[in-house]
Specification:
Layout lengths: L1 H32 L4 H37 L2 H32 L10 H27 L1 H8 L1
Helix pairs in contact: 1-2, 1-4, 2-3, 3-4
């Protein structure tokens, strides 16, 4: 059970991080390419971000559960720290979704409507929160995937 939980913790955090980086790179490329009008970019945001958050919540919740099982079974510091980091990141992203993204989504609908003056604040805040979560998850991913530490705990 320990090896399975360690595998799931590694798989979920690495999958999330890779997908999140791809999502950010694709989104930034679309913006800086200048190939799309603002209304199209807003439409893409409204289509993609709910999928991004659903993917995030499923993978990080599964990673947290696997990390906690690993922590309980191994009594190891690495699994404990991994679980704490994922819990912090997941909390940040839940706050971001409910108190930042959903208001942003409301500001973008209907498509083509003028953006309220609060829009830049919320947009910057979601960038900051997602960047912090990505750094935390990168740290957690490196930590749990670092072979020499986790091998000592799982033996």
């Amino acid at each position: 059970m320990l090896k399975l939980s360690l595998f799931l913790a590694r798989f979920t955090i690495t999958s999330w991080f890779g997908a999140a980086v791809l999502f950010v790179v694709l989104t930034v490329f679309e913006i800086i390419s200048g190939q799309f009008e603002s209304i199209v970019l807003d439409g893409l945001v409204l289509m993609r971000f709910p999928i991004y958050y659903a993917f995030t919540f499923v993978l990080l919740a599964a990673g947290l559960a696997a990390g906690v099982v690993c922590w309980v079974l191994s009594q190891g510091k690495i699994c404990k720290l991994f679980s704490v980091l994922i819990a912090i990141s997941l909390s940040i992203l839940i706050v971001d979704y409910f108190w930042v993204y959903l208001p942003l989504e409301a500001m973008l609908t209907p498509l083509g409507s003028p953006r309220p003056q609060d829009f830049p604040f919320y947009h910057k805040l979601t960038e900051i929160l997602n960047s912090v979560a990505m750094l935390i998850n990168l740290t957690a991913s490196c930590l749990i995937n670092w072979q020499s530490y986790t091998d000592k705990e799982s033996s």
